[in-house]
Amino acid sequence: MMPIAETLARAAVSGSCASVASAVALVAGGQRDCASCLAPINAVSHWVWRERALYQQDGSLRYTVPGYLIHHSMSVFWAVTYEALPRPPERPRPALWEIAAGLGVAALACLVDLRLTPQRLTPGFERRLGAGSLLAVYALFGLGLALPRLLGRRRAGGTPIAARPAESTQPTGEDAWTRWTNSPTS
Q1: pLDDT per residue as tens, the chain (186 positions)
Q2: How far is the C-alpha of 151 from the C-alpha of 133, rounded, in Å?
């Protein structure tokens, strides 16, 4: 298990990625569902400004800034859950595991946000977006949680996965020579 300080540091990064990724979905969904790209972000500030925030269409310091700050801080909060999941220290989990874990935490966040939380403390954007947009918000949130771990994967030599050359299935000359010289003769 990771020390708490490392878990929190990783959560700050993965939560920030998840916050930005899901904010992209909020903006796109807002434009599609309520003709305002900032309305869903403004709606989050209903924690501070109550019902009035749910109907704000335009960007403002009063609604948009606190709305995004609340959204961002809750993204980091959920990222702590993602980062606290057990992982073997000796090797990274497969990419598919990281993605599934991120989407699993996003599904848990969705359940808690939309079904278990009192309406006064829900995200608020669910009152401005349709079901398809909400699905996109939580899906991108989950993928955003996994993004830093996927980008940070390294092989033994320290080269990021994206920078690796394609692996050849052909043996190198030395490997072929070793196999040929060590093979039993017929």
Answers
A1: 678 999 999 999 999 999 999 999 999 999 999 999 999 999 999 999 999 999 999 999 999 999 999 999 999 999 999 999 988 777 778 999 999 999 999 999 999 999 999 999 999 999 999 999 999 999 999 999 999 999 987 543 455 544 444 444 444 555 544 544 454 554
A2: 26
- Its pTM stands at 0.81
Domain boundaries, the chain: 4-182
